[in-house]
Amino acid sequence: MMSKSKTSFLDQISNFVVNRLAGPMAKFGGIPVVAAVKDGLVAIVPIVIIGSLFLLLAMLGLPGTFSEGALIPALSSLSPKLLVFFNITMNFLSLYAAVAIGMNYAKHFNIDSINAALLSVAAFFLININDLTNGMDVTNFAAGGLFAAIISSLISIRIYRFFLEKKITIRMPDGVPPNVTNAFVALIPFLVILTLLWIVRSIMNFDITVFLNSVLGPIFSGTDSIFVYVPRVFIGLLLWAVGMHGDNMIGPIFEPLKLQWVAENAEALSNGVNLKELPHIWTTVVERITIWPAAAWGILFWMWRSKLKQAKTLAGIVTPAAVFTIIEPIVFGLPIVLNPFFIIPFILSGTIAAFVTYGAFSLHLVNRVFVELPWATPPFISGYVATGGDWKGVLLVIINFAIGIIVYYPFWKAYEKAEKQKESLETEETAGNDSTLSV
Questions:
Q1: Contact yes or no for 152/221 (Cβ under 8 A)
Q2: Rounded to 5 degrees, what are φ and ψ at 135?
Q3: What is the pTM of this model?
Q4: 213 Cα distance to chain centroid
Q5: Is the pLDDT of residue 106 over 50?
Q6: What is the Cα–Cα distance from 111 to 116, expressed in whole angstroms?
Q7: pLDDT higher than 70, residue 142
Q8: What does the H/E/C string look like for 244-277?
Q9: What residue spans of 93-207 are helical by DSSP H?
Q10: CA max distance for the chain
Q11: What does residue 363 show for φ and ψ, rounded to 5 degrees?
């Protein structure tokens, strides 16, 4: 009777993650609605980055933000104009998101992109504007209107698709230019969709944005919690540890929230809220200064100090990328993926760093993040810039780096010992083969 082969512990972890976590997350991320929201929000990130950087410049010229007087007096006269730039970018965030999400959702159904963009922006205006007698109220155009922008774009494009599928459109004869055809094809669905939205907002006086914020706001604000942030980091690292891109797998779930939170922080700062009292902690920058200084740089430190030639050689190759938190060369080159020596410290170091970092922001020890930066910005730079020049943001990066060094130490020593033993055995086998050949 043949005995069944036992599955190793690492294989059990890999099977669990692939079958129980990665599969459902991959399916979730592949849903057209989710993909459209994710891609649409990614598309407006340049506007968020530029807008928040202009806010930073404006604050440097205003007294009472970073010091009693203006930190850079030469910018004082320019600060009001810099704030105009900030308002046109960050405080119109939901409008830009509505267009980008609508266009990306339309791509999944091969719908004309120009029609999708026009429909999305018109739908957004109709659900947010009810009176123009005293000028246009653009309050809902800022981050607070993001969820309404998402829903209005998705619903409008979905109804538009229904009209196209059922062929409830004006048909033009062959030979008519495509741009003219598209215009007439859109006429009936545009009329129905926009009229419905007008009835809801203006006739029924139902403010979708206010309703969504009152219902969903407390739920999503509660997501910005150490009890959600730390498990998110743990699960992300667990996915990385079995060879999957943890950030891409989890990103679609939290990306809309992080974008709204950093925008709300920027708006609060522009309204005079203290840097340590901004409403939100969790942003993309906080993730970047938390996870990889511990989980990637920690092991890189021991690679540089190692007596193993291949480890030092690899360290020289991967360090330039790692500085910019491009960690794939370490994860897959060493490898860390499914490595019995490194899978535990890889997950543990980043998780501990997440707890420490979030705790430091919660205790108001560090200025909270109000600037969005490119994801590949080195953590030492982003920790300083995104917190408005708070040196404790850099200190957090150093502390997380130290956490990684400490957590990896015993595991790295065990790895080095195993590698040296392997080298010794290979040397002995080579010597034995050489002596046999000489006889």
A1: no
A2: 90, 175
A3: 0.77
A4: 22
A5: yes
A6: 7
A7: yes
A8: CCHHHHHHHHHHHHHHHHHHHHHHHHHCCCCHHH
A9: 93-107, 113-128, 146-165, 178-185, 187-198
A10: 104
A11: -85, 5
